[in-house]
Amino acid sequence: MWVVKLGGSLAASDDLPRWLDALSRTDAVIVPGGGPFADAVRTAQARWAFDETAAHHMAILGMRQYGLMLAALCPALLTAATLAELRQPAGRAKVWLPAPECLDAAGIPATWDVTSDSLAAWLAGQIHATNLLLVKSVSATSLAATRSLCCAQLVNQGWVDPVFPTYAAKNACPSWLCGPDAHIGLTQALSKPAGHFTRIAG
To answer: Considering its fold, how many domains does the chain have in total?
Structure first.
């Protein structure tokens, strides 16, 4: 089972429905980014200066909103909120709808340093995924020069959050990175990721 994190930056992209269509033909678990919903939380916190815990909870609910949007755009997708639901085979792709209280119980830090990237890595470990894929609005030319990037490079580029390396290191499964056009030939790419995606090294 793959865990595929769809970046919130895809919310305004024509590639988004293409990704959903391609993923609907798999049994992947889709982790939604926060997109414009998390951006609204950042704007509100900047205006009213409420605490990190409230902002973190609101951002998680932003991911949930984005997830509901993804499921509405592609009715072939299922939705699931709990780890038990996500672990159960369904033969269809599922969209994760995270709940703040569940992540609090798991000890996830309430900070902007933890984004949907880290949560996707954490989830991959919890449901024993075979692979983790981060789908980012990164140009193909930026990834073409190498088939492998270390976590530190990704953090320095601002492509993943600072906590991601910690959660990625705890996973037994490989982590990968791709750009927004990688939905083309996705089924084949998932079967042979080394030839299509950039490996995220420790």
So the answer is: 1
User: Which of 88-92, 114-118, 131-135 is least confident?
Assistant: 88-92
Question: Helix or strand or coil: residue 97?
Answer: coil
Q: 179 with 15: CB under 8 angstroms?
A: no
Q: Binning pLDDT at 50, 70 and 90, where does residue 144 land? A: low
Cβ 134 vs Cβ 6: under 8 Å: no
Range of the domain at 172: 2-201
According to DSSP H, which parts of the chain are helical?
A: 15-23, 35-48, 52-73, 83-87, 100-105, 116-126, 140-144, 151-157, 164-169, 186-191
pTM: 0.95
